[in-house]
Q: What sequence folds into this?
């Protein structure tokens, strides 16, 4: 049975010492969350994650969801009960506007909590996770009446939500979608069509499910300019908020998937289902991106979450399993063999994951703070700057943290040798669950294109220039610091590679856009390396300050940060050179073959 | 339903044009295999793979093996019938000594055939695959009587074989094993203990199963110096070769695994089972390595095999799935969208896999030729040189081709978007099946240690020096060729990095062996890049010669080789720089943390 312990100390270090959480207490959401309150909330979240969510993870995978003949779906044993506790504790509405029953706390805090819960049970946490995306879309694009009707019960978790985008013939290219909406006299629409891969599309957790559905209104323009977003509830809701008759929407089947067996992935059939336009007619794509951007951050977090729990188990196994002797002589001479954590190649795995996870955690929280500033600051320049950086970093977080999250799960599984391949040990589940995060909410190749094709150039490159300036100035200002030079040197080298890659696109993508496409995935990872390296420099510096001020019992914690930062710069950061070389290789040999030649 | 087509044209190009197969016709095994015969055998193997093995692959995964209460195991529907055809066609004994009923054909040809069959159905092919490893061990270490008793029926596939090494508390560190052997008056032994992860340990395919079991004879020295290898048949066999009573060996359970569901992975219980010493008393490790080395080459091939079939399906999907438009303008304007093969990021995936697979195929066959020379040449210097290179390349083939084979399966799955995550499409199976190859027959970290800790230094570095000389001279002799420079330049750079890494180990591992361990996995991949790059240089050259001689209809095939070789040098080869940097980073930050700090 796998173990899990929420890394609360690490989260607090990042929030308090690295990111200066207290500096944000002028924002409304932060006013109630002193460091003590933050710590108390994190402790509650960790208890719930460790004791309630985590014990259901492996059994949920093994049992999976069951669809019955009437189209209803039963989730694995214990899931509903755990969800009820989650709902009753108010976790779902942690960062939601109090006007609709939320607690109005920082999105940053929501993000910290989300890591633990997704580590403990990713499949279960997808039910409320999708609800939060749907809440965001209705909150931003809904009318006052719609918000009043739908948000309170969704915020309370009494109703859950879904995103209905994909159809059998279209995923990425939503312009092809066929689900149609026919306008009714009362202003509502009748929705008909089939959606696939609908996570949490049908289940037994909530009394209603609020589907947000992309469809094409009769007579709308072709392509993405003609799609609109609709609210389509499973059950009708009257003006008093009471749940009534079943709507014309049903689960046709659930998919047999590689992982996340505890989440029901549904084929949803819409048959003259009543729906309500959300946002502007033919403006569905914009409304969709509101929930999509939220979802992408959540999925990036899933990458970290699975990486973290896989890592913890690999550490545990590496300390327990005895096999062979250390190359430098026995470390546990009283035993027949040393624990395998003495072997450098096992260390390589553990240090690599650790170094990336801790930076990923910092980067997620750094980005979440940008979201809070973007939504809550009363300074327009701050808002814009934060929104720019959040938009820039969203595809990086989604694409990089899910690619590496999967890689890390595989590496952690490898530590177990043959046992890693046996389902009862739980490592296979982490690999299988982590795999989906690279695919859904925009496959990672799409994230790379979003970064290179959209985010880099938007507003004349304002976001990326600001980011390069920030990181460059950070390195420059610490250039003469002996203690910081080991970190800023590697970071500066990475930044130079990233700037060179950016420049290469500017010079070569215009004459041939394939040159941008050909380098996009490598560029995204290059960006991720710099972003993580920037976090490590800041974490190393924060730890140095703590040590200088006398860290007492916690000194080892801060000393270890220095070591891990050094490892990152020595072993992980050099990858920027390779990524740059690949970007600069361009598209010629990549695109030269005829399709038949493959 | 996935597709599969055996890449016969590519195999023939490598054998005939790149490796000069005909040059070996002075070796006995090659005397009967003119190019025509080789082609005919490959065509037969491809038909059997495509039409018989492949259709059972997905269903075999979904159905899995079933153990019954009496300990018997049933394989998936159709497996026994397909195995019977395989057996009756004599495939198992293709390269086995005719004295024991084999066909005595080149191991190289066996290797070519094995690729197709493992692509088509890896789980099924493990049954005969393990038999071949057991045959090799008995052939090399058995007495004349043992060979006569066991080999003919194994070669004929009437009996199958297994390797019994792992116990619950020991895998890599076989010195810890506890299974015991008690000497009997008649010279046989009574074997007792438990073995786990025994592939093909029990099944319904053959009338007998010949287990090769590592055990410790009562009173033997501790550690690996006290283990011996035993032949332990499922059923006793009398002097006339008739199968008799059940021996004291049984399948206690079968494992629920991540993949290769069609192969029964058994817990085997030995309870005073009668066994016969194979090879020298306390010389079990040496005998085991005979089958292990054979098995490692087979597992390396599994990496390529799964990579190839995953690639073929990704190509097929990329040509069929329409989504979005090419960045350079519509390529299929008559359709609502272009096939996704127009997108550079899809091309990146396909070209990367293609470039590595074609070189991997060449490297497997290059290595198999070394095996044939090592076994059959009458020139001692040639034998030794071939054996050196085979030994050097074995961990590289196993470690690198299985790591990349898995990566490629994941990349190919990604091409399918959400469909890749759904089991019925078959891409998940490739990922799950490929995963085990990184683990079994020595986890890849062990391969890296074998390469760095054992193979590099053996006989004063004779093998590695010969290899560096060969590749260096190859580059040097083509330095002034305009057509070859694009390839030898990249290869030479890679070779320089590899030599620098080797030098670094020589200078730094003596004072601290952790410096070797810390860089071993990166070194193994660095070696693999150079070895694959060397194949690409030779393939490009062979293709140039064919073109110069007028290739007719096949010109496109050879032109495409140039493009793919260029892609390899531009996009894959630059990774050597990163691998070298990691090797040279040493072990300090990797080993600095206390175990509690993880």
A:
């Amino acid at each position: 049975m796998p173990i899990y312990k929420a890394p609360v100390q690490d989260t607090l270090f990042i929030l308090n010492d690295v990111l200066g959480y207290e500096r944000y207490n002028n924002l409304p959401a932060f006013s109630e969350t002193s460091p003590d309150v933050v710590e108390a909330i994190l402790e509650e979240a960790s208890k719930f994650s460790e004791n309630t969510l985590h014990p259901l993870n492996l059994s949920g995978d093994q049992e999976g969801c069951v669809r019955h003949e009437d189209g209803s779906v039963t989730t694995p044993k214990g899931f509903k009960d755990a969800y009820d506790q989650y709902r009753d504790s108010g976790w779902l509405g942690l960062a939601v506007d109090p006007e609709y029953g939320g607690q109005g706390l920082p999105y940053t805090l929501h993000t910290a909590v989300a890591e633990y819960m997704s580590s403990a049970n990713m499949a279960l946490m997808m039910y409320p996770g999708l609800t939060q995306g749907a809440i965001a879309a209705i909150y931003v694009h809904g009318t006052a009446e719609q918000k009043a009707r739908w948000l309170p019960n969704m915020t309370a978790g009494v109703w859950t939500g879904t995103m209905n985008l994909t159809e059998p013939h279209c995923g990425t290219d939503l312009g092809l979608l066929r689900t149609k909406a026919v306008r009714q006299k009362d202003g509502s629409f009748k929705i008909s069509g089939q959606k696939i891969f609908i996570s949490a599309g049908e289940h037994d957790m909530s009394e209603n499910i609020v589907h947000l559905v992309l469809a094409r209104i009769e007579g709308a323009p072709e392509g993405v300019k003609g799609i609109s977003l609709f609210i389509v509830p499973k059950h009708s809701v009257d003006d008093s908020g009471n749940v009534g008759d079943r709507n014309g929407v049903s689960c046709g089947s659930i998919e047999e998937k590689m992982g996340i067996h505890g989440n029901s992935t549904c084929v949803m059939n819409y048959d003259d289902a009543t729906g309500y336009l959300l946002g502007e007619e033919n403006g569905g794509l914009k409304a969709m991106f509101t929930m999509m951007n939220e979802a992408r951050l959540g999925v990036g977090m899933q990458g970290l979450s699975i990486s973290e729990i896989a890592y913890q188990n690999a550490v545990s196994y590496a300390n327990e399993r005895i096999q062979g002797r250390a190359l430098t002589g026995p470390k546990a001479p009283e035993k027949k063999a040393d624990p395998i954590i003495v072997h450098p190649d096992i260390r390589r795995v553990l240090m690599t994951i650790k170094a990336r996870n801790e930076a990923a955690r910092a980067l997620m929280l750094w980005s979440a703070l940008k979201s809070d500033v973007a939504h809550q600051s009363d300074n327009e320049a701050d808002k814009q700057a934060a929104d720019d950086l959040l938009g820039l970093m969203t595809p990086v977080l989604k694409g990089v943290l899910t690619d590496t999250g999967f890689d890390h799960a595989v590496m952690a599984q490898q530590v177990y040798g043959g046992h890693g391949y046996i389902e009862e040990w739980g490592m296979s589940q982490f690999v299988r669950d982590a795999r989906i995060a690279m695919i859904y909410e925009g496959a990672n190749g799409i994230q790379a294109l979003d970064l290179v094709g959209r985010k880099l150039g938007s507003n004349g490159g304002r976001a990326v220039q600001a980011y390069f300036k920030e990181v460059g100035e950070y390195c420059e200002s610490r250039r003469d610091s002996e203690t910081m030079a080991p970190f800023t040197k590697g970071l500066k080298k990475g930044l130079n590679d990233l700037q060179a890659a950016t420049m290469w696109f500017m010079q070569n993508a215009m004459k041939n856009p394939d040159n941008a496409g050909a380098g996009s995935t490598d560029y995204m990872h290059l960006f991720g390396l710099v972003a993580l390296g920037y976090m490590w420099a800041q974490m190393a510096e924060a730890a140095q300050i703590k040590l200088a001020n006398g860290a007492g019992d916690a000194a080892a914690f801060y000393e270890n940060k220095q070591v891990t930062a050094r490892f990152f710069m020595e072993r992980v950061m050099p990858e920027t050179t390779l990524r740059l070389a690949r970007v600069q290789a361009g598209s010629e040999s990549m695109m030269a073959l005829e399709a038949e030649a493959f």
Notes: The CA atoms of residues 359 and 532 of chain A lie 5 Å apart.
